[in-house]
């Protein structure tokens, strides 16, 4: 069984929209694109290099189109990006000139993908896809970079798709700029109790 790992840059109030640059995603009149740039230091860069090791990708259509317009010509910045399989969940997009792109059309396709042989599957960006994965309990791990700022409005990591689920911490780092980098693994159902009992 292949794991689906969601990698996300988020603010304290859960915004994940357009962390990398002003023009990345301006939908909804979002004006804070590039909000992660001031926090990018040496510690951050080391973690990113480790997390961006070659792995197959699962992307929503919008993120795929952003990636396909940028990464094919900049593979020196993300070694292996052109060689891994890019699985794209879309009901409208059917083909791409970006090599190794495969199109999925349903939750059942994603479930089937998890049963195949291969590397773990990373999800980058893809807010709507993440909501779908959460709704169907298909996220095995979260690798989050939590930034010390709030933006108020924008696309959120945890929005309408979340279900009750328990996770355990597997790795954590705090960068000098105050970014908390944490990895969580899915472990089962939510447990409740009474504090101090």
Description:
The structure is a single chain. The chain has helices spanning 42-51, 61-70, 107-114, 127-135; strands at 4-11, 56-60, 86-89, 101-104, 121-124, 141-147, 166-174, 180-188. It is built from 4 helices and 8 strands. The mean pLDDT is 94. Strand 2 (56-60), helix 2 and strand 3 form a beta-alpha-beta unit. The chain has an 8-stranded mixed sheet, with helices on both faces. The radius of gyration is 17 Å and the shape is globular. 19% of the residues lie in helices and 25% in strands.
Question: What topology does this entry show?
Answer:
Elements: E1 4-11, H1 42-51, E2 56-60, H2 61-70, E3 86-89, E4 101-104, H3 107-114, E5 121-124, H4 127-135, E6 141-147, E7 166-174, E8 180-188
Parallel strand pairs: 1-5, 1-6, 2-3, 2-5, 3-4
Antiparallel strand pairs: 6-8, 7-8
C-alpha Rg (nearest Å): 17 Å
Query: Which whole number gives the mean pLDDT?
Result: 94
Low confidence ranges: none
Question: Main beta sheet, described?
Answer: 8 strands, mixed
Number of helices: 4
Key words describing this protein structure:
4 helices, globular, alpha/beta, 197 residues
What's a quick, concise take on this entry?
The chain is of the alpha/beta class.
């Amino acid at each position: 069984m292949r794991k689906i790992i969601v990698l996300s840059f988020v603010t304290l109030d859960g915004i994940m929209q357009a962390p990398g640059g002003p023009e990345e995603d301006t939908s909804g009149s979002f004006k804070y694109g590039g909000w992660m740039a001031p926090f990018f230091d040496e510690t951050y860069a080391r973690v990113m290099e480790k997390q961006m090791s070659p792995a197959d990708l699962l992307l929503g259509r919008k993120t795929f189109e952003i990636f396909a317009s940028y990464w094919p010509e900049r593979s020196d910045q993300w070694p292996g990006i052109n060689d891994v399989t890019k699985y794209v969940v879309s009901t409208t997009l059917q083909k791409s000139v970006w090599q190794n792109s495969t199109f999925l059309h349903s939750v059942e396709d994603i479930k089937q993908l998890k049963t195949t042989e291969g590397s773990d599957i990373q999800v980058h960006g893809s807010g709507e896809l993440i909501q779908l994965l959460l709704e169907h309990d298909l996220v095995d791990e979260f690798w989050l970079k939590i930034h010390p700022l709030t933006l108020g409005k924008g696309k959120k990591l945890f929005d309408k798709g979340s279900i009750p689920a328990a996770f355990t911490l597997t790795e954590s780092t705090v960068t000098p700029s105050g970014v908390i980098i944490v990895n969580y693994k899915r472990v089962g159902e939510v447990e409740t109790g009474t504090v101090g009992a």
